[in-house]
Design a protein that fits this description.
430 residues; alpha+beta; 30% helix; binds 4-amino-1,4-dioxobutan-2-aminium adenosine-5'-monophosphate; binds magnesium ion
Length: 430
């Protein structure tokens, strides 16, 4: 019977066949231990010479790292393995003998591993991170489906910018100029006026010359947009959403989190409600923590975010930033014209901003005024203004960066490990 490593537990005592790659091997003259992987998991295959005979033992012993094979064996319970079982091998069929696999069990430098990303993703650590990424994607879709959001796919090729013009990727659209999407938000606002509660989940692009552990050139963003939802209600949805994601990963990725050595106690805490700190109070906190240079009106960098997050054991919302350092579409606070109804959600443990969101301006005259202040005279935005002409309503939305979320939950140092093929400054290969 053909099965997968993940399902071996259901076949204790039976003879099964799995298709696998050899990730590592130890052997003596009498016994060989094969570390096998098939994408669904890792298992040890034990080959005993006196049981299988000379020929099969020689085949097993001759296997090189990353060779592919069909292995047949009896599933045996084994307390010591993470999976709870191992395979007593009875038959080996070599499919392909790999030659000089470059990533050996010894230490390799980051650049070497990045050059071999197409192979590096086979390793146990990368496997665990990509599994967690998959679980987060599942939890995102599950949360929105259960809460009556409709998934809408905004275009990737656009004629306008959503998040300022400094980080736009330019391309030609036949004779016209076009840009790769920085955010689907403006289109999602149109979709919210049609369908109520919507979300998008797709690739976004920022031509930023940032070389930090939090920045990718191409990253995936989840962007909900909600009609008739005001700022404070949006924050409540955000904290429920993040709690659902974190608790789902804890529940379904126990082995992966263990492989990564993640401190799960820090994640177990991540349950709504999350603390809220106003930008004004954040400035005071930073001054108390010794950031003497920071002034009201300054934007926060990574060290500021980390310092604020340190005071809390959950993600923290920083709310109501000065309007001059935020996007043109954010609604001013009705009680205070100099700040906007927005929030950034800062992850704990130094992982930085994972969500940026706000209530949107719904008044046509104010939006037109903002356009002028931002020099957005382009016709490309005409349709966006029309949303404020035909049944405008209060509405809010936010964007969650997938890779920063994966980095935080899996405990990865750098976002380069959180996406299969990262696009970084100076890296387009492989
Ligand atoms: O704060 P940002 O720029 O917000 C927007 O794009 C809004 N239009 C979202 C919305 O309201 N619909 O980006 C949102 C999130 C950030 O908090 C961060 O998690 C992630 O996207 N992000 C990046 N992730 C990796 N690399 C980059 N260069 C990123 N830029 C933003
Ligand atoms: Mg932001």
């Amino acid at each position: 019977m053909k099965t997968t490593i993940k399902k071996l537990r259901e076949h204790v005592g039976e003879s099964v066949t799995i298709g696998a790659w050899l990730s590592n091997k130890r052997s003596s003259g009498k016994i060989a231990f094969l570390q096998l992987r098939d994408g669904t998991g890792f298992v040890q295959g034990v080959v005993v010479k006196s049981e299988v005979g000379e020929e099969i033992f020689a085949k097993a012993k001759g296997l090189t790292q990353e060779s592919s094979l069909y292995v047949t064996g009896t599933v045996k319970e084994d307390e010591r393995s993470a999976l709870g079982v191992e395979l007593e091998v009875t038959e080996v069929e070599v499919l392909h003998q790999a030659v000089d696999y470059p990533i050996t069990p010894k230490e390799h430098g980051t650049e070497f591993l990045m050059d071999h990303r197409h192979l590096w993703i086979r390793s146990k650590r990368q496997h665990s991170i990509l599994k967690i990424r998959n679980e987060i994607i599942h939890a995102v879709n599950e949360f929105f489906y259960n809460n009556d959001f409709i998934k809408v796919d905004p275009p990737i090729l656009t004629g306008s910018s959503a998040e300022g013009t400094t980080s736009l990727f330019h391309t030609k659209y036949f004779e016209e100029d076009a840009y790769l999407s920085q955010s689907g938000q403006l289109y999602m606002e149109a979709a919210a006026m049609a369908l109520g509660k919507v979300y998008s989940f797709g690739p976004t692009f920022r031509a930023e010359k940032s070389k930090t552990r939090r920045h990718l050139i191409e990253f995936w963003m989840i962007e909900p947009e909600m009609a008739f939802v005001e700022h404070e209600e949006s924050l409540e949805i955000q904290e429920q959403f993040i709690s659902h994601i974190v608790q789902s990963v804890i529940k379904r990725c126990e082995n992966e989190l263990k492989t990564l050595g993640r401190d799960i106690s820090k994640l177990e805490n991540v349950k709504a409600p999350f603390p809220r700190v106003s930008y004004d109070d954040a400035i005071k906190m930073l001054k108390e923590k010794g950031f003497d240079d920071i002034e009201w009106g300054d934007d926060f960098g990574a060290p500021h975010e980390t310092a604020i997050a340190e005071s809390f054991d959950k993600p923290v919302f920083i709310t109501n930033y000065p309007k001059d350092i935020k996007a043109f579409y954010m609604k001013p606070d009705p009680d205070r014209e100099d700040v906007v109804l927005c929030a950034d959600l800062i992850a704990p443990e130094g992982y930085g901003e994972i969500i940026g969101g706000s209530q949107r301006i719904d008044d046509l005259a104010l939006m037109e005024q903002r356009y002028e202040e931002h020099g957005l005279t382009d016709d490309a935005y005409k349709w966006y203004l029309e949303l404020r002409k035909y049944g405008s309503v209060p509405h809010s939305g936010f964007g969650l960066g997938l890779e920063r979320t994966v980095a935080w939950i899996s405990g990865a140092e750098h976002v380069r490990e959180t996406i299969p093929f990262p696009r970084l400054l100076n890296r387009l290969y492989p």
